[in-house]
Amino acid sequence: MTDLSSDYDGEYPIVVEGLRNSFGDHVIHEDLSLKVRKGEVLGVVGGSGTGKSVLMRSIIGLQQPTAGEITVLDHKMGESTEEDSIDLRSRWGVLFQGGALFSTLTVGENVEVPLRQFYPELSDMLRSEIARFKVRLSGLAEEAAFKYPSELSGGMKKRAGLARALALDPELLFLDEPTAGLDPIGAAAFDALTRELKETLGLTVFLITHDLDTLYAICDRVAVLADKKVIAVGTIPELLALDHPWIQEYFNGPRGRAALAAKDDPAIAPEHDTAPQAERPLAPQGSGMDTSRTGA
Question: What is the pTM of this model?
């Protein structure tokens, strides 16, 4: 891995070293290394089949690598006691592709799932109150807590999944293609909300995306997956200075140039506040969030 911003001397809540993932004879990752800095939004990009989601699943323990070492919040994955593993899982939240909501549960009940698992001593009333707070924190109206996933739009499902990911007040937030399938206004609003939550709650965000607008709008650094490993990590300008063909094609192609133009000229970017009120961020009083920039 080439870290293009080597002047950092802070903490690394996620450290991956020498990772190898394979399915039979098919090798996905070989000698992959990556360090995620505390408090950053790290975008992870790569072509189809490069194993972006497999990497995320390895970090959170859903995929057992064939070699390498992963350390999350100072815990070595696969070597912790059961008690440590339970504690570790309570310190991150995950938004899977499509939201991965339980269709037979309401949004509020979906948010309550991790609360029931990790804090079974909570009363039903307190658990329900926390769930409604998280729903509002995700930008949905409180009434959405009583709806079923089938009653939600695509953007609302993403936010409901985000509310569940935030249920346990995590330190790490994993987002897998959070803006996939959203219209430009909805995607821009979700980006703004992600950045707002990161700054307000002090989150470290591991963000898998192919959305160039997202990369330019909210990512502090970008990790590029290619050739079965992370070939470089840095800011977009730092990555553009490299002559790797995939990086040049990805960031300097028509979509990349359009995303850069939108970043440099807000007049041609989608407006954030033209979405329906039902999907705008509605932070509870006292949360400290500035929701004036966000919509859905």
Answer: 0.85
